[in-house]
Known about the structure:
The chain has twelve helices and eight strands. By secondary structure, it is α/β, with parallel strands linked by helices. It has two domains: about 5-325, Thiamin diphosphate (ThDP)-binding fold, Pyr/PP domains (Rossmann fold, 3-Layer(aba) Sandwich), CATH 3.40.50.970; about 325-358, no CATH class. The mean pLDDT is about 95.
Amino acid sequence: MKRVCYLDVNGSLSPDCMHKIPDADLVRGYEVMLLTRHIDERMVTLQRQGSISFAMSSYGEEGCVVASAAALQLEDWIYPQYREDGALFWRGYTPQQYIHHMFGDSQDSILGRQMPNHFGSRELNIVTVSSPLATKIPHAAGCAYAMKLQKEQTIALCYFGEGTTSKGDFHVGLNFAALRHAPVIFFCRNNQYAISTKTSCQFACSDIASKGEAYGITSVQVDGNDYFAVHEAVSKARQQCLEGTGPVLIEAMTYRLGAHSTSDDPSVYRSEQEVEEWKKRDPVLRLSRYLKTKGLWDDDKEKTYLAKVKSEVDEAIKVAKATPPPPLSSLVNDVYATVPPSLQEEYQSLRTFFPEAT
């Protein structure tokens, strides 16, 4: 399948690109990518220091996440996997909110009930991440079908990695959406590795996009590190969904430059030479070069912006470290409308070990 690409590694935009993105949106997209990268780096450091328990980075994949989120409307629903913190920041989630979540403290919107990097926001229509992969694909298809039944002018977008396509939920979700013409975008971040398993060890076909075509779904493959190509693909897919012609599968070819998580050592299964080759296609670097040639960005602006980001993140970490953990009662609240006697009994027993807990 032909891969769509407009922005080369030097930041030059092909004249074939007819898709227009306002300058202000491009600059904001670049700023969100820089913010995402900085916060990811800090979270990995905090995990190594023992301040938080776990961290995952979107290093190298920021372009496809931010560009795709930027092509949506706030009313559209997003089903993230766990590298889509850039989508959160694009929609207005603050570094302070995110860092409270990474600490799992009493100001975390989900009160530490999930691992770090398992974020979500009801206000921003971003469904909380779930550790089991692929389970959200049928959920997104069902959500989109509900939108169709209620005649809402909105769509759902579901993110997942290429390894997730080996799960049965992927095939169930695509088949259901295709049959029901559900307005959903299936967005595959093909970052070449499902933890340590390379794509060539997962499936015999040459791409993911062809799997969508097998279900009668419009499918496209784009350079996931090309901000313009991703933004165009999602914009077109959203319009197609709203026109009622059915779902769209987008395969964004990108690369995970960092480790899968802080529990992973990628040097065991891939070469440094491979990583260095992909660094030349860095989405942040490519968009930076484009913006500079257009006079929309320069080194002074970058220095000023990064200083602002660093100060804000430093302060957010300081606040999170001083924030108490969630109340003990959060263990049993929000599970049932009314806490059942058996669970209440267990909770009271637990409180004997924490006499000051509420």
